[in-house]
Amino acid sequence: MNEAVTTSNAPGAIGPFSQAIKVGNLLFVSGQLPIDPATGEFVSDDPVEQARQCLKNIAAIAEAAGSGIERTVKTTVLLTDLSRFADINNVYATFFQKPFPARACYEVSALPKGAQVEIEAVIALA
User: Fold this and answer.
1) SS3 readout for 1-65
2) What is the pLDDT of residue 13?
3) For residues 2 and 23, is the Cβ–Cβ distance under 8 A?
4) Which position among 105, 111, 124, 125 bears the catalytic label?
């Protein structure tokens, strides 16, 4: 059975989807934009700061589900400029330790609301 997970510590869904869904012992976190939940606005125009906020949002959702970002098993990173990959990797590495989650990273032509970064995750539940 699917169970929606929501928290006010991450931005609400901007469409017909949930912040995250629990299924069995996994949490599927929808793509997170770099929106500060307190203001409803992007934290910055800088893709590195945007990536940091995306990961903070994922951490808040994981916590709301009774887990933690350190239990992430897979992420997908979407970037509008792959030339910033190394910089974003540096921020990404501050949220995860070995063994690092599996990951895919793609350059896309556009993201919702003009974001430069979006990150989704699959997280193991405790």
Assistant:
1) CCEEECCCCCCCCCCCCCCEEEECCEEEEEEECCEECCCCEECCCCHHHHHHHHHHHHHHHHHHC
2) 87
3) yes
4) 105
Residue 34 · residue 51 · CB < 8 Å:
yes
Per-block average pLDDT, block size 10, for the chain (126 residues)? 94 92 98 97 97 98 97 98 96 96 98 97 94
- What is the spatial distance between Cα 57 and Cα 42, in angstroms, rounded to a whole number? 12
Would you call 54 a catalytic residue per the annotation? no
Residue 15's pLDDT is 86
Q: What percent of the chain has pLDDT over 70?
A: 100
Domains recognised in the chain with CATH numbers: 2-124 (3.30.1330.40)
Tokens 């974003």 label which residue?
88
Q: Checking phi first, is residue 102 left (phi over 0); if not, alpha (psi -120 to 50) or beta?
A: beta
Instruction: Tokens for 38, please give them.
Output: 């307190």
Which pTM value belongs to this model? 0.96
Q: Which residues does residue 63 pair with via DSSP β-bridges, in sequence order?
A: none
